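User: Just a sanity check before I run the rest of the batch. Below are the structure tokens for the first item. I only need the designed sequence back.
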């Protein structure tokens, strides 16, 4: 049987004009700013008008630890939203924006898959409404003003060896991780070591996603630490008077983007921080707006529940006051067999012994959601044609032992129709199960205790090792008054540990923290572990090699 590609399915979609989608959500016309026929920005000031409306129910979609076999988290999020709509519920979806780096790198497009996609797929994956470009420009304005401050006499006494603000671009380009700039003599700046992060790892992106309005955005930008003086004092973007100009560049990017699914369910796609190196959630503003407009809101957090979901719950919910009503954990039999040691080429064969080993990864994520965070959970088994009844029954029985129901999801092949059983189970969990939401740690705890709480409770580690100068970095941060911030751990997405080779549910390991830095504007402390990079590289065969456009402007090969 031959299947249509995601982009072929998307290009055949019958989209509604975006103004009609907005009208069905009862968004007044004056708040809708069109970007062509099928995309619009929604003025965030509408939240003031809707502040007294009750919120809908918030459903968080997360997943097991990612594998090359694929899990289908975004696809499940979209399909579940469509299924809830089919059941007669007013539903809104809230997703992150794709970064161009993964689009052209190893992942391809990131707008769902099969018959559970958001559209216009090509626009969403390529440039969209320019939000990430605004983040890039804003980030680099700060860098330019910082170096200009030094060039023009350096009245703040900034130590060029202690500049922590990097430039950025939205592309996987390992050549730019470490560079030397300012060469060419006195007119061309002060020579120094520098580097680039990918744009979605910029603190500007995190600030965009956590800001509540333009004033809050400016205040957060002003607090961002960009360098240190010769006597070790932090220098902020506010100290070089960058916050006003940066906010001016970001004023339109701050507005959530409205699009739709293949089945015309409304979807906000706004903000795109990576979950392995940032907090991995769409904007607070988009989520809150969706909750005012829908009876149910389906959102997702990046990578596995140990990364995106942990940061959604411990950072985004703490900052915003949001509280999920249920969590969906996506898994596939193929991915679980991979965690059980099966090579990618053999994943289509039934293998219950491998499944028995690999399912421990799923069960750990279930435990994290239900026992650590106290939330109702449902497991969505994303169906593949090669799955067997025996494999499905095994997964369902193991989940049931933890008091969680596993439901077969067929949204890739059938769209919302294939997600109706999942939607009904999620509604049941919301209405019937206890919700005792709690955080992993108290922010008043010492920084090391907070890091260890995440490592032990969420990852299953025996403890944490602090390499090099990290303990001094932590002591300095606490002395500067930053010790009461939440923690954002940057680690590999491919393992519950900080070693990507440790699949399944590893035990007997320790997490190695090699750098700790403040993201004061975002409102958290970043602890970097393992070999995690804030500027990824392209794979041996980049997805870009398969992407093309014909004479009529029709794009192919995007996914």
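Assistant: Here's the designed sequence for the first item:
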């Amino acid at each position: 049987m031959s299947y249509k590609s995601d982009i072929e399915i998307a290009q055949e979609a019958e989209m509604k004009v975006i103004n009609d989608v907005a009208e069905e959500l009862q968004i007044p016309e004056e708040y809708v700013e069109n970007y062509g026929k099928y995309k619009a920005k929604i003025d965030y000031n509408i939240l003031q008008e809707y502040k007294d409306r009750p919120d809908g129910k918030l459903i968080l979609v997360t997943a097991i630890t990612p594998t090359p076999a694929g899990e289908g988290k975004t696809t499940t999020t979209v399909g579940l939203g469509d299924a809830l709509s089919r059941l007669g519920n007013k539903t809104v979806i809230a997703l992150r924006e794709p970064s161009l780096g993964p689009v052209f790198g190893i992942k391809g497009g990131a707008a769902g898959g099969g018959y559970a996609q958001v559209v216009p797929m090509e626009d969403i994956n390529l440039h969209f409404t320019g939000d990430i470009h605004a983040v890039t420009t804003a980030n680099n304005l700060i860098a330019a003003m910082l170096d200009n401050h030094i060039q023009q006499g350096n009245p703040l006494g900034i130590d060029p060896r202690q500049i922590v603000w990097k430039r950025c671009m939205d592309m996987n380009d390992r050549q730019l991780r470490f560079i030397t700039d300012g060469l060419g003599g006195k007119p061309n700046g002060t020579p120094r070591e520098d580097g680039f992060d990918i744009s979605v790892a910029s603190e500007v992106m995190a600030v965009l996603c956590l800001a509540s309005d333009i004033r809050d955005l400016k205040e957060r930008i002003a607090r961002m630490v960009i360098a240190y003086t010769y006597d070790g004092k932090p220098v902020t973007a506010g100290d070089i008077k960058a916050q006003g100009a940066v906010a001016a560049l970001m004023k339109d990017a701050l507005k959530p983007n409205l699009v739709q699914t293949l089945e015309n369910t409304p979807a906000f796609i706004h903000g795109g921080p990576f979950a392995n190196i940032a907090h991995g959630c769409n904007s607070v503003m988009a989520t809150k707006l969706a909750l005012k407009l829908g009876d149910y809101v389906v959102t997702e957090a990046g990578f596995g529940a140990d990364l995106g979901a942990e940061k959604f719950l411990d950072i985004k919910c703490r900052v915003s006051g949001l509280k999920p009503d249920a969590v969906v954990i996506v898994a596939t039999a193929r991915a679980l067999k991979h965690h059980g040691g099966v090579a990618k080429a053999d994943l289509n064969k039934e293998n219950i012994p491998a499944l028995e080993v690999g399912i421990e990864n799923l069960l750990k994520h279930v435990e994290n959601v239900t026992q650590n965070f106290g939330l109702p959970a449902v497991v969505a088994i994303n169906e593949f044609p090669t799955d067997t009844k025996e494999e499905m029954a095994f997964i369902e029985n193991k989940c049931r032992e933890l008091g969680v129901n596993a439901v077969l999801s067929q949204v890739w092949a059938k769209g919302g129709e294939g997600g109706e059983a999942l939607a009904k189970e999620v509604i049941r969990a919301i209405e019937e199960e206890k919700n005792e939401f709690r955080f992993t740690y108290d922010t008043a705890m010492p920084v090391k205790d907070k890091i260890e709480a995440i490592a032990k409770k969420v990852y299953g580690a025996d403890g944490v090792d602090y390499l090099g100068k990290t303990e001094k970095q932590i002591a300095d941060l606490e002395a500067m008054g930053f010790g009461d911030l939440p923690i954002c751990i940057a680690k590999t997405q491919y393992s519950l540990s900080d070693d990507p080779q440790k699949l399944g549910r590893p035990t007997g390991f320790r997490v190695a923290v090699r750098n700790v830095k403040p993201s004061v504007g975002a409102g958290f402390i970043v602890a970097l572990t393992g070999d995690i990079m804030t500027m990824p590289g392209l794979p041996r065969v980049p997805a870009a090699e398969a992407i093309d456009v014909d004479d009529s402007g029709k794009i192919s090969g995007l996914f």
